[in-house]
């Protein structure tokens, strides 16, 4: 079945837009809650905890600490910078009062970390907008640029 030569040219921009927007939305869905969690834990008291290795950048490493005489194991949020920490190291974490499972490394609750987490999706969005602008400008026909008097 032949749909003609122009059909794909009309559908292609929509496919490209979807292919760019879906990862951007997923990036925002991961980075914004992680930044929000760190902001919420900024005022909590630091507690000593035992670090357990994992894929910290993906949110798969954990810490174990004592709270009211009980051992609590909690997962660290996505984007945790755990460089230099090995299995069994003692680290300082901040835990939310009343929510012992919500923790973050004390060093990761500063404004710089939150800004870096938010800069990733914003930078990706700006890059996508720049690519779209270049695409639109390159697709202009020469007769569109010249105006008759």
UniProtKB/TrEMBL annotation:
Keywords: Membrane, Transmembrane, Transmembrane helix. It comes from the Bacteria. The chain crosses the membrane at residues 12-36, 114-137. This is Integral membrane protein. It comes from Streptomyces eurythermus.
């Amino acid at each position: 079945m032949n749909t003609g030569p122009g059909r794909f040219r009309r559908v292609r921009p929509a496919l490209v837009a979807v292919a760019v927007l879906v990862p951007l939305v997923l990036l925002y869905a991961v980075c914004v809650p992680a930044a929000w969690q760190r902001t919420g834990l900024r005022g909590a008291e630091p507690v000593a905890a035992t670090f357990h290795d994992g894929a910290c950048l993906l949110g798969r490493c954990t810490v174990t600490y004592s709270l009211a005489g009980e051992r609590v194991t909690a997962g660290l949020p996505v984007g945790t910078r755990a460089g230099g920490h090995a299995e069994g190291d003692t680290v300082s974490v901040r835990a939310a009062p009343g929510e012992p499972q919500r923790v973050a490394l004390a060093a990761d609750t500063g404004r710089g970390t939150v800004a870096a987490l938010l800069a990733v999706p914003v930078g990706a969005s700006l890059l996508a907008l720049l690519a779209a602008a270049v695409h639109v400008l390159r697709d202009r026909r020469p007769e569109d640029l010249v105006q008759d008097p």
